Amino acid sequence: MLSPINAEQDIFVQRCLRELGMGYDGDENIVDLSQLTSDYVAQDGDVLTGSLKAEVMISVADGASITLKPKSVVRLIWVK
C-alpha cells in the first residue's frame, strides 16, 4: 500500500510533471510558499503549496481563483 506524500514531495512531483509537460494545463502557476521572501499577489490559476518560512503577506488579485495545497490555512484576513 502506498502512503500519502508530504507537501515537500508534492512540490517536487508537481515540478517534475510540469517539466515533462504533464499534469498541469499550463494555466496553473505553482507557488512554493517556503520560497517567498517578500509580499506576493496571487494571480488567477495560482496553486499555493508548502509552508511560509518568512513573515510575508499574500493577497489574491481581484477576481482570481486560486488553489491551496495542502488545504490548511493558518490565518486569513479579508480586505475589501
One letter per element, helices H and strands E, the order comes to HEEEEE
Total of DSSP H or I helical runs spanning 4+ residues: 1
Counting helices, strands and paired strands, the structural category is alpha/beta
General shape? globular
Taking the sheet with the most strands, its summary is: 3 strands, parallel
Q: Give the DSSP E fraction (strand runs of 2 or more residues).
A: 15-25%
Average residue pLDDT: 75
Adjacency order of strands in the biggest sheet: 1-3-5
Low-confidence runs of at least 5 consecutive residues: none
Q: Give the helix level as a range of percent.
A: 10-25%
Task: Tell me the Rg in angstroms.
Answer: 13 Å
* Span of the ends, CA to CA: 46 Å
Number of strands: 5
Written overview of the protein:
- The chain is α/β, with parallel strands linked by helices and 80 residues long.
- 16% of the residues lie in helices and 21% in strands.
- The protein is built from one helix and five strands.
- The chain has a three-stranded parallel sheet, covered by helices on one side. A two-stranded parallel ribbon has the order 2-4.
- The radius of gyration is 13 Å and the shape is globular.
- The model has no long low-confidence stretch (mean pLDDT 75).
Topology:
Elements lengths: L6 H13 L9 E4 L7 E3 L3 E4 L8 E3 L6 E3 L11
Parallel strand pairs: 1-3, 2-4, 3-5
Which tags fit this structure?
80 residues; 16% helix; two-stranded parallel sheet; 1 helix; alpha/beta; three-stranded parallel β-sheet; single chain
Compact description:
The chain is an alpha/beta fold and 80 residues long. It is built from one helix and five strands.
